[in-house]
Amino acid sequence: MFLNILLYYIGVCSAGYATPEQIHLSWTENPNEMRITWVTYLPLSTNLYYRSLLCKDSIDWSEKPASYTIFDAGNIFIRYEFIHTVTIQISSDCIYEYYAGSYYGWSPTYKFRGLSPGTKIFDSIDMLLVADWGGGTVGQLTKNLILKQISLDQVDGILHAGDLAYDLPDLEGMVGDSWLNMIQPIAARIPYMVSPGNHEYINNCSHFKNRFKMPINEANQGTGYFFSFDLGRAHFIMINTEIIVDDKMASEIYTEVNWLKKDLKKANENRDERPWIIVLTHRNLYCSVDWTLPYKEKNSNCGVDSIILRRYLEDLLYQEGVDLFFQAHVHQYERNSPIYKNKTVKSDYDDKYMHVNPKATIYITNGNAGNIEHHNNPISKTPQKWSIFAAEAYGYGKLHVFNKTHIYYQQYSSGREIAIDHLWIIKDKLRF
After folding, report:
1. What sequence ranges are listed for the domain Calcineurin-like phosphoesterase (predicted)?
2. Residues 285 and 333 occupy one common structural domain
């Protein structure tokens, strides 16, 4: 008991007791809403103070009380965190300024754009795509470059396709605390949307479910494991591939797949307004395997699991005309041509950096934001014919949905702080 209490108060003292930390934004399942989440280490009543700027119907500072849940972040010992949440109404025409806390401690003040899914259609949106991101040297490089980018460029949201912190529960949850504090200067300004990877399933996903509140739908039952949203001219879907490759979770497969079928059908019915359909997962359907290396030692992240995932998902993606499929898990970057049934499908026009009217889904592996495991699968010396570009550089992607007909993607190297790859996708039809 003494050790429990000692460890708890060490964590409390190092975190500043009552000062809000781990602040992050996320969209909800409803339009015109923003959720703000933060943590304290004491059970305090805290408030959000916010105002709108630079819009027709600006509001002066308003106060809204937060609710909190008690979360035991420990594995061996009890280590309580108090997770505070507030949801506010927003308008896409406004900029919002806010801070959170109580008499006992205040957060810094942050600003965010009032854009939210399912509302006014903006032709041009920009999303950052990350995955497999932890702390350490390489994780810090990615953080530093993203901070520069959001200060200079428009960024409307960040989508993280699994494997957070490495790992959220480690060191009695302190690794998760440290990582969330590392990304706070980003996630407190840009909505941060996440789906689980294999590393989130430690402790039955408890850290993922408690620390991140994602959009609720009838099928995910509030877990946030899979969801979708409309933004700009695109429909985004974040799904959970862990339940498909893990036999212990097989009973959940059809719940998610049936939801995905309905979601894609609805997205296609709305394709005149939002012709782009973009899916993000953690595990890979397609990535190159170096067959000169021992399979179990070096290629296990893109082998049997990929075949299983294709069996459940590939025909559906193809039949519903999914344009782009972003995947992670392999700690490299690889961009592939349009693929169906393990073969390249020719577009009306193809070159290394452009596809005009693609006839199948384009797959991009982007699991290289940086983590303690470093690179898990080396760049293949025997790449498949559909592999166009690959790199070991740590980094992330930026997706610019210009309008109904043009998308531009860039892959950044965090170490070199430059774009190392790019792709134009152009189409004059709503779907292939």
Report:
1. 146-333
2. yes
For the four alpha carbons of 241, 244, 249 and 254, in that order, the dihedral sign comes to positive
In a domain, 314, yes or no: yes
pTM comes to 0.94
The C-alpha R_g of the chain, in whole angstroms, comes to 21
Per-residue pLDDT of the chain (432 residues; tens, 9 = 90+): 444 444 444 444 444 679 999 999 999 999 999 999 999 999 999 999 999 998 988 889 999 999 999 999 999 999 999 999 999 999 999 999 999 999 999 999 999 999 999 887 878 999 999 999 999 899 999 999 999 999 999 999 999 999 999 999 999 999 999 999 999 999 999 999 999 999 999 888 999 999 999 999 999 988 999 999 999 999 999 999 999 988 778 788 999 999 999 999 999 999 999 999 999 999 999 998 776 666 555 556 777 889 999 999 999 999 999 999 999 999 999 999 999 999 999 999 999 999 999 999 999 999 999 988 888 777 888 888 999 999 999 999 999 999 999 999 999 999 999 999 999 999 999 999
Residue numbers of the domain that contains 355: 125-426
CATH number for the domain spanning 343: value is: 3.60.21.10
- 284 closest CA partner among 307, 261, 263, 264: 307
**Region for 420 from its dihedrals, namely left if φ exceeds 0, alpha if ψ lies in -120 to 50, beta otherwise:** alpha
Give the other-Cβ count within 10 Å of 103's Cβ: 10
Judgement on whether residues 240 and 260 belong to the same structural domain of the protein: yes
The C-alpha atoms of residue 191 and residue 116 are separated, in whole angstroms, by 9
Distance of alpha carbon 294 from the chain centroid? 31
CB 129 within 8 A of CB 280: yes
Tokens of 179: 């990582």
Q: How far apart are CA 358 and CA 296, in angstroms?
A: 34
Residues 217 and 182 placed together within one structural domain of the fold = yes
